[in-house]
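Please produce the structure of this protein holding XIL.
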Amino acid sequence: MPARLKNYICFALFCGLLLAEGCKKNSSSSTQSVVATLKASAPFPMGSAVTSNGILSNYYYQGVLLTEYNSMTADYEMKFDITEPQQDVFNYAPGDALVNFAAQHHFRMHGHNFIWHQALPPWVLTFQGDTSAWESLFKTHIETEAIHYKGKVASWDVVNEAIRDDNGQLRNRDATPGDGSGSIWRQHLGPDYIARAFVYAHEADPNALLFYNDYGQEWGGVKLDSMISLVTGLKKRGIPISGIGMQMHIDINADTTGIASALKRLAATGLLVHVSELDISVNPGADPNIVFTSALQVKQAALYQFIAETYRASVPAAQRYGITTWEFSDADSWIPVFFNRKDWPLPFDAAYKKKPAYYGLLRGLTN
Ligand code: XIL
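Below is the modeled complex.
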């Protein structure tokens, strides 16, 4: 072999060796430096409510979502006022942006929601018609939206917040005229509208998992009793309900015993249990001078940790639909806007950096 060729081969072998060593080093150092994420740590899907605006136009928002989560819920894009702004005129553009993103990045997509007493367009609020006209608009809305998203949305909150806080009755007429606490659905369609909503959704998309979603389970009392008897009653009748959503919009002073016992009772129904809209307010008293001190941050983190631990301890693995936070950054929380107060309810701060709350949640998923 000519000396030049020999030298060349030796040089090539030497380079190969260096390269292999480099790779080994890289792979071991990257293993060591792997940073835990929520989705990699959780033994169930980790979700967030997301907006189309966030995923389409906010680089930081997209980054956190893609790194930390594997399930998403439509924040407002699939609600009635957006999807059917005029009767029989459907608008899917905002929701389509979400399902396209979900498909592209392999997220589970949770639809929220078909039937709620809020987020209704004016034409529904002022609709005049007999029972069958109401039934027809109700059925058409559910079926049309469910068919559009068939195969793209894994699950739906079919009915949202149908039960009153004070007495566990179905929302019907407003407690005080005009206060918005009632439900036009119950008023016009009778108490069994909930069962029919599930049937219509199931007929339109038999593969979708269907949830009843509400808040306040952690208070116990009549509202929780009534929710449990509603879902167990539906199940007994063979109505296609798959699960129950516990929104968990709680605050820093939430009663942890109430959370634990609600999760156990929900699990005892045998249905899937979704912590569906978690956030933890630190300013429930709406103090305008509040400072988000490190003591408050630590307390919030401990509560996030408690929720994840208790969910794992109380809900059998096969019934865990996952934990979903309502957005993930304080910049995008509904609470400061909706309640017009300062607040910091989520695991990431307004600059999309991890808060102690994030690390609390992570500990709760892994401890
Ligand atoms: C909130 C949205 O995040 C806000 O953008 C909107 O202004 C009000 O609704 N319970 C629910 C969610 O089921 O749909 C609500 O979402 C938060 C409370």
